[in-house]
Amino acid sequence: MRIGIDVGGTNTDAVLLNGTSIEAQAKCPTTADVTSGILQAVEQVLSQGPNDIRLQGVMLGTTHFTNALLEGKGLAPTAVLRLALPATQLLPPLVEWPDSLRNAIGGFVYLVHGGHEFDGREISALDRAAVQAAARDMRQKGVQAASVCGVFSSVDSSHEEAAAEIIKDEAPHIQVTLSHEIGRIGLLERENAATLNACLAGLAANTLGGVQEALKSLGLECPLFITQNDGTLMGAEYASRYPVFTISSGATNSMRGAAFLSGVTNGIVVDIGGTSTDVGVLVNGYPREASVAVSIGGVRTNFRMPDVLSIALGGGSIITQEPLTIGPESVGYRLMDEALVFGGTILTTTDVSVAGGLSDVGSPHLVLGIEPRLANQALTKIRQKVEDSIDQVKFNADDVPVVLVGGGNILIGDVLEGATEVIRPENAAVANAVGSAIAQVGGQVERVFSLDRMGRQEARDSARNEAIAKAVAAGADPNTVDLIEIDEVPLTYLPSNVTRIRAKASGDLMPD
Asked: Which residues fall within 8 angstroms of residue 145, CB to CB, at 6 or more apart?
């Protein structure tokens, strides 16, 4: 058995999964400290399940680290060491970061000689003395984390690895993130992604350590796994080193859960929560990946992210009249206290859903005063918002299956323009937790290869082996890991015969 947990901004959901059967489920308000809400949800599913539960693991998806970046809270004093001189001086590290986030991490920046060309030749030799001096300065200034980014380190990572060793020798307490382990091609975006990861590492270790202790207090000795934003899992220790991979994992969990519950592997998933709605495309049971740079807290990054469109629409969205508007404000986790249908005083989308006959929650007699015309107009506007979002994420103009999940799925009827069918699977309200529970352990890499220096098959084998090694490092059973995706894009804008190869592998959890 497994317990799947998803911590959202409004609710913390949990399910107890036995093979493909959902034995128990719970939905609790998310708490400020995260851990309390998780404990409450886990206690509820354990109380509903059989007495002799033997858990294979607890799988957790959380927005905690995303929120930390958006709010600039709990971040470690972080340095950025770029290996690039004499190149890149006109665009120093953190150049496009919002002032608030740059100040939150301290904004310590160092540039030294090093880095490589696209074909692996050195731009200049690594200046080890300069790296050593930078590390000493970091130590004196109280830096707790550092990102190391070399030009074209996705081709040759030796300079980054050497610099990391020097930092560890001079300042062993500093947690170091290497950019070639995080991002893709594109110096600034890869550097940004690595720096975001570095500033989160301390928070991740403390938070996940707290969750592990909380689970032990319930008598659970099974391992804790964290969901990544590509739909796979990583062990808690691995997640403490790479917390940035959890960003947008909530949307991914919902899409994976929707595919599992509905049986749809290619289509569109609409996940309506309490405050927002995520709309994304399923491709072979996994969310389609974004192909462009993604902004997180105002910082452009290029590491893997699901291609998801988010809109300010949820079950707690506040409705105003004259003119009629839906959101963006929401009562969020206060829905059960403040919505009309629960005895509150604020008109929300859930109220018009009940008044319009789409759902039967709360006390329907409390919304009898809502005019039918107002309810119909509001529901039409809600439906149009979702239909517009579906159109934006589609591959083409063809109609496709649409799966509705999330607690706010009651806002939508059974017909949507652009959908061949609207599927509302059983247990749709906890699809996100189901997605956490069913995930396999995965690893993914993207590398640039000069085919003048090695053969194409050798390059593909190298990427494949590295992806498999990452999956095993994240906690997968080596005997079950297999390559699930590999693609190659020739980089025709560069001289010589250069190609980019991306590989993804996944496998089952390592048995006890």
From this structure: 76, 77, 78, 79, 174, 175, 176, 177, 198, 199, 201, 202
